[in-house]
């Protein structure tokens, strides 16, 4: 594979002399979390999804993917075995400092987020990158980007964490990471004006620390309804929408202008 064109690659994989800033439409960064996702999905589920979306973007546009830690900010499941948490200050600073350095390569940055608790910090970091470093930054959390699709594809009436939607996406993209024999319906959290259920419109934010217990699986949803066909529909819609987003931003072909 030739790297004479800086696009379509990962920054850590190429020699510095092959970085051609004038040939980059934008940069992409994937971020997620390392936290429990029930007994059937890996701890790195959020990052794996964001990373896969970034790979799809790399295939379609002249971009470089920036390296980033799979660890994110975890509040809700911080006391579960395997969950890793970094402070809000550290996470925000990492995004800003990496983005500021990368601005020397290209001023446009697409941040793909796989973990909802990162989102408010990413918005703050994006604002700082725009204000202090003159960058153009767009941030999205994948489930929010295709919330309407998740609602139409998923049969379950509650879907919050490691449920039908995410498990379906894994069965399509990463079937080798799914422990099928461990899949079962999880806990249902009733939703109202304050809820994290994707099938409900959020009107108030109610942070809750959920602790492990002998009877708890860590699943909030119904992954037993998941299948690869649903995952394929979610994946197709997701990649289509990301492509539309890039074109809406007028970033495709930006390097040539």
Automatic annotation (TrEMBL):
GO biological process: riboflavin biosynthetic process
Swiss-Prot/TrEMBL cofactor(s): Zn(2+)
UniProt keywords, alphabetically: Hydrolase, Metal-binding, Zinc
Keyword Isomerase among UniProt keywords: no
A Pfam cross-reference name: Creatininase
A molecular function (GO) term: metal ion binding
InterPro entries, per the entry: Creatininase-like_sf, Creatininase/forma_Hydrolase
SUPFAM superfamilies according to UniProt: Creatininase (SSF102215)
Family statement drawn from the similarity comment of this UniProt entry: Belongs to the creatininase superfamily.
Protein's name according to its UniProt entry: Creatininase family protein
Originating organism: Lysinibacillus sphaericus
């Amino acid at each position: 594979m030739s790297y004479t064109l800086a696009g379509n690659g990962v920054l850590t994989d190429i020699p510095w002399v092959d970085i051609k800033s004038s040939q980059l439409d934008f940069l992409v960064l994937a971020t997620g979390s390392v936290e429990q996702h029930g007994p059937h999905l890996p701890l790195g589920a959020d990052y794996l999804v964001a990373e896969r979306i970034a790979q799809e973007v790399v295939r379609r546009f002249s971009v470089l993917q920036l390296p980033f830690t799979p660890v994110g900010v975890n509040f809700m499941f911080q006391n579960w075995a395997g969950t890793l948490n970094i402070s809000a200050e550290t996470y925000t600073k990492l995004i800003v400092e990496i983005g500021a350095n990368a601005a020397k390569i290209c001023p446009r940055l697409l941040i793909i987020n796989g973990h909802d608790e990162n989102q408010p910090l990413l918005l703050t970091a994006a604002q700082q990158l725009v204000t202090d470093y003159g960058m153009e930054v767009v941030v999205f959390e994948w489930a929010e980007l295709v919330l309407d699709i998740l609602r139409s594809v998923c049969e379950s009436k509650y879907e919050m964490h490691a449920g039908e939607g995410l498990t379906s996406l894994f069965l399509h993209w990463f079937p080798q990471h799914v422990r099928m024999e461990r899949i079962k319906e999880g806990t249902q959290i009733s939703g109202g004006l304050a809820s994290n259920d994707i099938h409900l419109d959020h009107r108030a934010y109610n942070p809750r620390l959920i602790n492990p217990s002998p009877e708890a699986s860590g699943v909030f949803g119904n992954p037993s309804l998941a299948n690869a066909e649903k995952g394929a529909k979610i994946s197709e819609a997701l990649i289509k929408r990301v492509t539309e987003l890039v074109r809406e931003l007028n970033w495709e072909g930006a390097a040539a202008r």
